[in-house]
Amino acid sequence: MIKIIVFLLLSSTLLFGQQTEKVDFLELNATVTIDTINFEIKGQVEVSFKTLKDVDSVYLDAVDMRITPSESNTLKIVNTDDKIWMTSNFKKDKSYTATFSYECEPKQALYFVGFNSTLKAYPSQVWTQGQGKYTSHWLPSLDDMNDKIIFNITYEAPKNYEVIANGHLNKTRSRLNHKSWYYEMQKPMSSYLVGFVMGDFRRTAAKSKKGTPLQVYLETRHLDKMSYTYQDHVEIFNLLEGKINVNYPWQNFKQVPVRDFLYAGMENTTLNTFSEEFVVDSIGANDRSFVNVQAHELAHQWFGNLVTETSSRHHWLHEGFATFYALEAEREIFGEDYYYFKIYKTAEELKTLSDTGKGQILVNPGGSSLTYYQKGAWALIILKEIVGKTVFENAVKNYLDNYAFKNVTTDDFMNEVELEYGQSLTNYKERWLNQKAFQSRETLEFLKKNEFIQDYMKLVAFRETRQTFKTERLDEALDFPINDYLGQEAVYQLDSSDPELSLPLYRKALNTNNLYVRQAVANSLTAVPRALKTDYETLLDDESYTTIEKALLHLWVSFPEDRHDYLDRTNDNIGFQDKNIKLLWLTLNLATSDYNPKEKSKVYSELSSHTQPGYPYQVRRHAFGYLYQINTFTEDNYKDLMEGVFHPVWQFKKFCRELLDTLMKSDLHKSELLKLRGNFSTKEKTFFNNRY
Ligand SMILES: [Zn+2]
Q: Which of 87, 192, 253, 539 has its CA 20 to 30 A from that of 471?
């Protein structure tokens, strides 16, 4: 997954660790009915297991479920708040089967999105998130990762939806208003990797070099974005399978974007569920971030799904490896400079953390994402440098082969490396796995071997130097052929308060025609000098939604006499999935009083309508932000804000709570909110009364 915040598993691992000594769950066959009217899940489960000792009870985790055992059971089934207990006189090495049906209204791990909305542009979806949220909220399963099960699940869904889930779609069957989707796995996996997505999706199918089916999905309304969103997906798959050098372990690989997702992506086995914000058109595709998410979740299919940590203490074996291999894929696609620039940046972040005494030990439960992901990736980069490419690759291959479908610790991996290397790596382990400090000197030595990094560091060294003494250096960095990163760095170092020296260089940067260097100008030159007006205006035509958004705002502020022209030129531009340009445009329109004055109330309604729950949270966040800036909220906006304080996406929930706190400090907003209190739901009322 990208990005998990804190992984809290220690106590449960200790507790559940005991059950894996008693029982091995083998296969779970279920039919799961998705009830989109009552937001309920109903299911029938047949689970088989082998007891490893003489025991009288075993359990599955099942949170707040109503259970009805089948009459055919030879064992007894009872349930508590969070478990289903199966009791009998179980004998060592004997296999058993239990069958029961269940019903639940999941409070987490499964989300009904958009069913209460009237916005036709956003079809409703159901999706799951098992890691950190526990699959046992919607499917009886195991919260512990140490018992891997073969899950074969049939999903029953309303007929007009597509269901995408783990494994191979064996068949579908339609009857009346429902359709059944029979998905089959062949190999076992940990329960947190079970997942499905339901929605209005269409797919495009391809095959990898070795014949693995690669299926990519988009909502029907987004079909024109298929080739841009997924432009590198086959190449990424072939690249990673080649680099890892162990055949892809599952039947297929599917990718589906969903709305209001909790993270950037999640590596459900055979199914990468990722955030809809990565769905892009030809312009949005210039933003490179989705290659990273695709490669990261794909790498987890080996590192995390095939070999799985025994506990969160070894979480870097998932995230460090996925980050490392995603970087490898990006290196091939975007080039060496991109790769080195990225790892230089993460080294900088890790060094800062370490220098301020906040460094964390890598092999450690409860680490930050910076530690597990970036420090983990760096630990592998340095390890490969020490033992050499061949030893590293062979060791990784042996590690995956020897522990396939099992659970692993850091020692299991390091033992494979030492075996292949023929020497002990005690010093490396001490420095990289067991120290809080980040090994910045060792990293720097590695980075300095790269010529581009040498040039980049020479330029960075001028950051604190006055413009007069470095103009020549910055000028040189903007020479043809320009390097993306040296060019951007030069622009960010320009001092706009010294126009005589900086103006010719801003102009030179704009004339490079390099999208990223020009974007640096749009980002950093916020008060546009008149002498640069014509050149700066060309940014409105760049193939980047980030650049256009920034350029529009800065031009509007800098040249009031041309506001109409800027608004006309960007009238039809929506921007990314978060409507970054559209919402800015509506706000600037309202702030330009003589621009189409008769349409102001229509424009305000349009901006104001974007806070409603049917919109993606990123759209709502922008709309709330702009409404706050123009200090005008309608009754509906206040209600939408109250709804937002319980949103499942924690970043948005936090945003809404903070905005509400701010509004409550203003007499005007406070009196409006107090007036509306009677209309709040019980949950909202309790929250509101406790907080204020
Ligand atoms: Zn991950």
A: 539
